[in-house]
Design goal:
There is one protein chain. The protein is an alpha/beta fold. Helix content is 30%, strand content 21%. It is built from 13 helices and 17 strands. Strands 1, 2, 3, 4, 5, 15, 16 and 17 form an 8-stranded mixed beta sheet that branches. Strands 9-10-11-12-13-14 form a 6-stranded parallel beta sheet. Strands 6-7-8 form a 3-stranded parallel beta sheet. Strand 12, helix 9 and strand 13 form a beta-alpha-beta unit. The two termini are 41 Å apart.
C-alpha cells in the first residue's frame, strides 16, 4: 500500500470497506486540494488520476483527540509537538487539541496562546487546536478572558482541585460564576476537571488517622485509589450541572472516571442542560483489581477504578450519556513516575496513550459488541463537534478535510517499546495485546504515516473553531 505520489493535489483512494456517513461499504474517495471532493462508487473510473486501492483495509475518518497534553514550550522534555504528533499519526489521529497546562507559560492569556502557537508552528505532523485555560486571575478579568476566547480557542479548561502545578490554580464557585457568563457569550465551552477537594481532604485525614495505628503502603494501588474517592467527582459534577443550568454556559466533563455520576448527567441532559461528557481508554480497559503494586505508569487522576465501574462506563457509552472517548495523553519524564520506588503517592499522575487510543478502545468495544460506527461517533465526530471543527473534521463527506486512517481492525499486535512514538515509551499498555493495526494516516490528503515510516515533512496546521454553540 505504498503511495508513490504523496503530494498530489488530486488523487483517489478506494477500499472495499470505507466508513461513509451511510455506513461501511465499498467506495472511492476523490481527493482534491486537501479536501474530499466526492464519495463515489468503488468501481468508479478516474483515468487521469492516481488511484490507491487499499483492498479490504478499513478507511475511516482520522481520529480527533481533543484531550492531549503536549507540554511545549517549557516542558518539552516531557513531550513536544514533534514527538506527540508523530505518535498521533502512527495511531491514526489526524487532529489533536492541546491542553493549556504543563507548558510554560500556561495558556491563560492571549499572549501565552501566541507563544504556544509559535512553539508549535512547523513542528506538527497532524493538525492541532489549542485550548485556553481558566484560572482565578482571568476568571475575574473579563477583558483578559474575552481576549483569550477571541484569539481562537474553542473553549477553556479549568480544575476544581489542585492541578499538580502551581501556575494553574484551581477555581472556586465564585470564580466560575464570574467566568461562565463570559464563556457563554462567546458560544465557547468550559472543560472541567471534575474533582473537588472536600472528599479528597477527608480521605487524607482518614488515611492519616489509620496510619497512626498501621501505616499504609504507598506502593499499593489501593492507597492511591482510596485517596481520590468517587464522591469527589460526583460532587464536582453536581456543582457544574447546577452552574451550567443557571448560566447557560456549555460544560464538558473531562475524563469521567466515576460511573456513579452517570444518572445525574443523564437527568441533566433530559432537562436540557448543555453538558457533554468524555471518558478515556484507560478507564474502559483496566480495572483497579488487576493493577500491581509499584506499577506507577497506571497512576492518573481521577484514578482507574474497579472493574464493575469500568463496565458501567461502557453502559454509559451504550446509552449515550458519555459522548466521546479521548486519550488524555499526559506524559512526563520517567524520573517523575517514581519507578525506582513504585510510590503511587509521590509519582506524577498521567497516562501515555496517544498512539494507542484507537486500538485500545476498539479492543474493548469489539469484545462488547460495538461497531465501527460507534468508534467513529466517539473518537471522530464527537470531538470534532466539541472543538468547533465538525464541518471540517471527523467525517468522510464531500467538503470535509481529507483526513483518513487506513487500518485493519481484525489484526492484533503486542505493545512493545520500539513501536511507541511518544517521547518516552512508558505506558500501562506495555506488553498488552491490542486489536487494530494502523497502516496509513492521511492529513488533508497527504500521507503522513505509512507502515512505520513518516514520508512527509511536518504539515500540521493550527485550527481555530469555525462554529460554536
Amino acid at each position: 500500500m505504498k503511495n508513490e505520489n504523496r503530494n498530489e493535489t488530486e488523487h483517489v483512494i478506494r477500499s472495499r470497506r470505507v466508513a461513509t456517513v451511510e455506513g461501511v461499504r465499498p467506495a472511492t474517495l476523490h481527493i482534491r486540494d486537501e479536501r474530499i471532493a466526492a464519495v463515489g462508487a468503488y468501481d468508479e473510473s478516474f483515468p487521469s488520476l492516481a488511484v490507491h486501492d487499499v483492498g479490504d483495509a478499513v478507511v475511516m475518518p482520522g481520529i480527533v483527540d481533543s484531550h492531549v497534553h503536549v507540554n511545549e514550550p517549557g516542558r518539552t522534555e516531557w513531550e513536544g509537538f514533534e514527538t506527540a504528533t508523530r505518535a498521533a499519526a502512527a495511531g491514526g489521529v489526524t487532529t489533536i487539541c492541546d491542553m493549556p497546562l504543563n507548558s510554560i507559560p500556561v495558556t491563560t492569556t492571549a499572549a501565552a496562546l501566541a507563544i504556544k502557537a509559535s512553539a508549535a508552528a512547523g513542528k506538527a505532523m497532524v493538525d492541532y487546536a489549542l485550548w485556553g485555560g481558566l484560572i482565578p486571575a482571568n476568571a475575574h478579568s473579563p477583558e483578559s478572558l474575552d481576549a483569550l476566547l477571541a484569539a481562537g480557542v474553542p473553549g477553556c479548561k479549568c480544575f476544581l482541585v489542585h492541578s499538580g502545578i502551581d501556575e494553574f490554580p484551581d477555581v472556586s464557585e465564585a470564580d466560575l460564576r464570574a467566568a461562565m457568563p463570559v464563556i457563554a457569550r462567546h458560544g465557547a465551552v468550559l472543560l472541567v476537571h471534575a474533582e473537588v477537594p472536600g472528599p479528597i481532604d477527608a480521605a487524607a485525614k482518614a488515611a492519616a488517622a489509620a496510619a497512626a495505628a498501621s501505616p499504609g503502603d504507598p506502593r499499593a494501588y489501593a492507597t492511591w485509589l482510596s485517596s481520590r474517592p468517587r464522591a469527589s467527582e460526583n460532587e464536582a459534577i453536581a456543582l457544574m450541572l447546577r452552574l451550567s443550568e443557571e448560566t447557560g454556559c456549555r460544560v464538558h466533563i473531562v475524563h469521567l472516571s466515576s460511573s456513579d455520576a452517570l444518572p445525574m448527567l443523564a437527568a441533566a441532559r433530559a432537562r436540557g442542560v448543555p453538558v457533554t461528557v468524555e471518558t478515556c481508554p484507560h478507564y474502559l480497559t483496566f480495572g483497579s483489581e488487576e493493577i500491581a503494586d509499584g506499577r506507577t505508569e497506571f497512576k492518573c487522576a481521577p484514578p482507574i477504578r474497579e472493574a464493575e465501574n469500568r463496565e458501567r462506563l461502557w453502559l454509559g457509552l451504550r446509552e449515550g450519556t458519555i459522548d466521546l472517548v479521548v486519550s488524555d495523553h499526559s506524559p512526563c519524564v520517567p524520573g517523575l513516575k517514581a519507578l525506582d520506588t513504585g510510590d503511587y503517592v509521590r509519582a506524577w499522575g498521567g497516562i501515555s496513550s496517544l498512539q494507542l487510543a484507537l486500538p485500545a478502545l476498539w479492543t474493548g468495544a469489539r469484545a462488547r459488541g460495538f461497531a465501527l460506527a460507534d468508534v467513529i461517533a466517539w473518537m471522530c465526530r464527537g470531538p470534532a463537534r466539541l472543538t468547533g471543527l465538525a464541518n471540517r473534521k471527523g467525517t468522510l463527506a464531500a467538503g470535509a478535510d481529507a483526513d483518513l486512517v487506513v487500518w485493519y481492525p481484525e489484526r492484533e499486535f503486542s505493545v512493545q517499546p520500539e513501536l511507541i512514538r511518544h517521547r518516552h515509551p512508558l505506558t500501562p499498555y506495555a506488553g498488552r495485546v491490542l486489536c487494530g493495526v494502523v497502516e496509513q494516516t492521511y492529513v488533508r490528503g497527504t500521507l503522513v504515516f505509512d507502515g512505520g515510516a513518516f514520508p512527509s515533512p511536518p504539515i500540521g496546521q493550527r485550527l481555530v473553531p469555525n462554529e460554536r454553540g
